[in-house]
Amino acid sequence: MQLKSLRLFMAVAETGSFVAAAKRLHTVQSNVTTHIKKLEEELGVQLFHRAGRVRPTSAGLALVEYAERMLTAHDEAVSLFKGQEKACGRLRIGAMETTTALRLPPILAAYHAAQPDVDIQLKTGPTAELVELLLNGQVDCVFVAGRLEHSRYHVLKAFSEELVLVDSMPMTTMPSSQELLASAFMAFRQGCSYRQRIELLLASYGVNAGRIFEFGSLDAMLGCVAAGMGYTVLPRGTVDAHQHRFGIHTLALPASIAHIDTYFVAAEPETWTPALASFADTLRNAVILDEPQLTAS
Amino acid sequence: MQLKSLRLFMAVAETGSFVAAAKRLHTVQSNVTTHIKKLEEELGVQLFHRAGRVRPTSAGLALVEYAERMLTAHDEAVSLFKGQEKACGRLRIGAMETTTALRLPPILAAYHAAQPDVDIQLKTGPTAELVELLLNGQVDCVFVAGRLEHSRYHVLKAFSEELVLVDSMPMTTMPSSQELLASAFMAFRQGCSYRQRIELLLASYGVNAGRIFEFGSLDAMLGCVAAGMGYTVLPRGTVDAHQHRFGIHTLALPASIAHIDTYFVAAEPETWTPALASFADTLRNAVILDEPQLTAS
DNA sequence: CGCTACTATCTCCTTTTGAGATAGCGCATA
DNA sequence: TATGCGCTATCTCAAAAGGAGATAGTAGCG
Q: What contacts B201, CB < 8 A, 6 or more positions away?
């Protein structure tokens, strides 16, 4: 059974004539006859009464319903990929907690305004988990800290973050090694790239990773820092956005470990759905507006 | 886009290999490559990652959903017509009130036992309306009184009925012309073939059609007859079945107008769905059991 | 570094498809 | 009943597509 035959079949059912159906689908009547005949042979049943005006038989009417389902699904699938202006379907984004909180909202808002027919699904997690999701095809793109070593992936430097040390008390100089050793650190769960920076920071002070408390949410983490439980390391922008809610203070980290980039990673552009391609466009525009010096890689 | 390509696509998505997909669908790997490539060209998007193991891209995963819908609809359509033992789908039957009440229940029960997957839709109405429904394709078959004059329809004599005169009082002889003229008759609404018999009966007594009350339901009609509103004409079997509920009495009509056959009419067997073919079988068996002397025409 | 297993490409041959021409049929009109 | 009109079925030929095999290229693995 061919979709082409079903299109002709539907045209015949709707127009009540082989000639009219042929005209509608820009072909000749003999082809319509052949296709219908083939359908009838394949199904072992006559689909149209040929006496005088052409009318669908009971069997023909029954087939109409299924033909509609098949053709509708086909048309939707095609418009998914070939939709000229408006993308549709689904876009699954993976992003880190901090990116989700600080950077994504304006971009998602702009994207949704541009593509209202796309269902956005956002999954949050640490970099390592996000990479896993992307490799498994469970998300269409991710925002992660640090460049992905996998080849054959499209990478775009999206955001540049300055990491700062966060504490409940005002700081003017970096805490001493003894203080750091004695203190606890708040971090996201295993796999978070910021957590690696904490361990890097401690190592640069000759201190092994001490007590590290793991959190799943930014709010909980900042709450604990504000309560004096210990330090954490976060992007300055994220802390600034929450400073009015918590009594927290920041200190710049050494330049060597302070800077961290957030990358947008997705499979090769040839595999992108229009929804994803449009999202990449939106992102590029936002990035260029924010920081004109950054370019795609 | 071809259904064949989608089958191959699904096989590749499920097996994760072009070779395995080719084996599953009994073809060679080069054909799988060609079909997938064609799909990709048509949709303008890459559907599989080819690095090492073959995995669907985001676009591929999106297509999976639509491919499933198309193929499911196709398989269901095919099984509608090619289902070997069990028919499925829908069977729309049109029948007269009296046939529905008296004759159909055992046949529908037998049919439903044989074909539990068929949805039965029963429409009730007078012969003329039923014929209209059949000609318009709104039902698959009808039970009507009197042979359908249309050619190219399959006709089977289903039931033989003896019409009797029904009244609230016991009768031993036919009422006189004067009585008939003065009486009312109960009949189904316009188009009922029994009603024609009433008019025929009156005419044979030299009486024009007098007052005829129209009813939509058998129960209401018999109730009014029992209440002494007037006569009616019905198949003996129908009256017998209701006699214990109403105080009604019958009298045989003149042989010339007493006999009336109920015919099963449907389009040509070549146009039958398996559901309809199976119903015709059930009906034939029931007819043969009841009255071996009757044969198909 | 070579082996293995897989996919892409090419070629040949068969089958299918599409367009045109023509025959046949039903219906309406005279 | 004869005739004309409009429609569908069938036939034919050329073009296109499809299937199978052979082969080249490539990634992954030991």
A: B165, B180, B233, B253, B254, B257
